[in-house]
Amino acid sequence: MSGVLVTGGTGKTGSALVRLLRGAGVRTRAASRNPAVANPDAVRFDWNDPTTFGPALDGTDRVFLLPPVESVDPLPLVEPFLHQAQRAGVQRLVMLGSAIVLPNAPGAAELATRVRARPGGVVLRASGFMQNFLRPHPLAEHIHRHGEIRTAAGDGRLGWVDARDIAAGAAALLADLKVDARNDYLITGPHGMSYPQAAQIITARTGRRVRVEPITEEEQAAAYRASGMPAEFAAALAAVERGIREGREDRVSTAVLELTGRPPRTFAEFVADHAYEWSR
């Protein structure tokens, strides 16, 4: 039988993708490190355990690939999986990449290049996730506890996108192999937005006053480390805010509309859907 393997199947994008594919009648296997025992369509998958790759791929011809998170060099872990997927006859592989290039992380760029080069390989380069404003992300935790956004990005804008829209784009590519696909899509929301603008929207839509507290890049890296992120990844993620501040990440695309037939959600719509998150 053919079907879709969704790695990171219990995450923000993966869980939404699984629901969309199953709702469309597509046989879908949700892969995670701790699958639900009672779910016959859940399978164990661990990037640090290559013995889980084969059983997860068995009987599938399409894959949604979520590389290891919080890694500046995912290629060594993912490369053996790519070889195994090719041997298993996978015809379409859609990888969730990033529109934001982490500093000093050439492995992530090389991984995207290899996926684009393989037959049926597609990279979705997603902008910042609106879900970062939801707990347990450190950004959201600080808003919830202190009513403030601490950032080194200044008034720089980013094309924030809802993970549900990323999932919808991926579903369009994975539900039917007959759908034509490019090998690369920039996935963003409908417009760029700065952290001060996000604070204004949350305040206006929920009544919870949110302010912006400017901090340095070094202070941001320390905060990420304190939240449990590996030091190297925390430093790279904090350095991204410099690029946002300097305007290098203010990009938007029409890819969500192109793939799904509808425009991406605005941040105001996202806040309305999750207003309970910012209550005291």
TrEMBL record:
InterPro entries per the UniProt record, alphabetical: Ergot_Alk_Oxidoreductase, NAD(P)-bd_dom, NAD(P)-bd_dom_sf
Start and end residues of each NAD(P)-binding domain: 8-176
Residue stretches in coiled coil: none
Protein name as catalogued: NAD(P)H-binding protein
Species this protein is from: Streptomyces tendae
